[in-house]
Design a protein that fits this description.
Blueprint: E1 6-15, E2 24-34, E3 39-43, H1 50-58, E4 65-70, E5 80-83, H2 95-99, H3 101-105, H4 110-123, H5 139-153, E6 157-161, H6 169-186, E7 189-193, H7 197-203, E8 206-210, E9 217-222, H8 238-266
Helix pairs in contact: 4-5, 5-6
Length: about 270
C-alpha cells in the first residue's frame, strides 16, 4: 500500500496561554490523508484552525496531540514551501533575488538560480521587473512573485494560506488561473486554505469544510470537474452553482457559531 503524501492523524493543537479566557483548542482530533499530486482545499469560518493546521505541516507549530507527517520521496528536493496571504517577499531584495532566495538557501550556484528565477518570472509575466523592488509593484504582482518563489524552490508540497485573499476580484481570477496552469503542469501536492467557496471549487480535487473552533473536518466534497480547468468558464457550469450551495449549506451554521463565539468573547 502506497503511503499518502501527507498523513494527519488525530491532530489537536491547544494554545495554553490565551488571555483571560484560558486555554484555546484551535484544532481537535483532525485526521486527513492527501495523496501525491492532489490539490486539497480547506474552507471554514474565521478562527477555525485552518492556518494552525498549515503551520503544523510547515513545522512552525507543534501539535499538542496526534501527528502531521509529510512523506518525502524525492530526497534531492525540499519537502515543503508555504505561501502566505501577504506575498511574504523581502522589501530589500529585487524581484529576481526574492524568487531565487530559496534556491540560494539550498546552495544552488548563482548562475543556475538566476536562470531558474528568470524562467519563472517569464512564466508569471514579470520578466521585465526582475530588478524592481517590491514597493514598485502592485499587490497582485507581489503575490505573483511569492508564487514564483515557491515554484522555483521546487518543493514536493505547497502549503498555501489564503494567498489571494487580499486581492481584488479580477487579479484573484488571474492568479487562480495561473496556479491551475502551473499545478496542471507540475502536479505538486497542494493544501490550499481559503475563505472562498468558489475558489475552493475552482482549484481543488477535494474540498473539506472545517467546523467553527475547535477545528474539525465535518464534510468532504469530491470536485467532479475534469482538468485542465478554466477559472472563468467553470463558473458557468450548472454543477458549480449546485456544489456552491451544497458547501454553503454545511458552512453556514459554522460561520454563525464562530460569529456568536467571537461576540461572546468580546463581551
Amino acid at each position: 500500500m502506497i503511503k499518502p503524501k501527507i498523513s494527519i492523524k488525530n491532530l489537536s493543537v491547544v494554545y495554553p496561554e490565551s488571555g483571560a479566557s484560558g486555554p484555546v483548542t484551535a484544532v481537535e482530533s483532525l485526521s486527513l490523508d492527501v495523496t501525491e499530486g492532489e490539490l486539497v482545499c480547506l474552507v471554514g469560518p474565521s478562527g477555525c484552525g485552518k492556518t494552525t493546521l498549515l503551520r503544523v505541516l510547515a513545522g512552525l507549530e507543534q501539535p499538542t496531540d496526534g501527528s502531521a507527517i509529510i512523506n518525502s520521496y524525492m530526497y534531492d528536493q525540499p519537502a515543503k514551501a508555504m505561501v502566505f496571504q501577504g506575498a511574504g517577499i523581502f522589501p530589500w531584495m529585487t524581484v529576481e533575488q526574492n524568487v531565487s532566495y530559496g534556491l540560494q538557501m539550498r546552495g544552488v550556484a548563482r548562475r543556475e538560480r538566476v536562470s531558474i528565477a528568470q524562467r519563472w518570472l517569464a512564466e508569471i509575466g514579470l520578466e521585465g521587473f526582475s530588478q524592481a523592488y517590491p514597493d514598485q509593484l502592485s499587490g497582485g504582482m507581489q503575490q505573483r512573485v511569492g508564487l514564483a518563489r515557491a515554484f522555483a524552490f521546487d518543493p514536493e508540497v505547497l502549503l498555501m494560506d489564503e494567498p489571494f485573499g487580499a486581492l481584488d476580484a479580477q487579479t484573484r481570477l488571474v492568479l487562480q488561473q495561473l496556479l491551475l496552469q502551473q499545478w496542471e503542469r507540475d502536479q505538486k501536492t497542494v493544501v490550499f486554505v481559503t475563505h472562498s467557496i468558489e475558489e475552493a471549487l475552482t482549484l481543488g480535487d477535494r474540498v473539506y469544510v472545517m467546523s467553527a473552533r475547535p477545528g474539525r473536518l465535518i464534510h468532504e466534497i469530491v470536485v467532479p470537474f475534469t482538468r485542465p480547468r478554466d477559472a472563468i468558464a467553470l463558473r458557468t457550469d450548472p454543477r458549480f452553482s449546485a456544489l456552491f450551495a451544497k458547501v454553503w449549506d454545511v458552512l453556514r451554521d459554522e460561520v454563525e457559531r464562530a460569529r456568536v463565539a467571537e461576540s461572546e468573547t468580546l463581551i
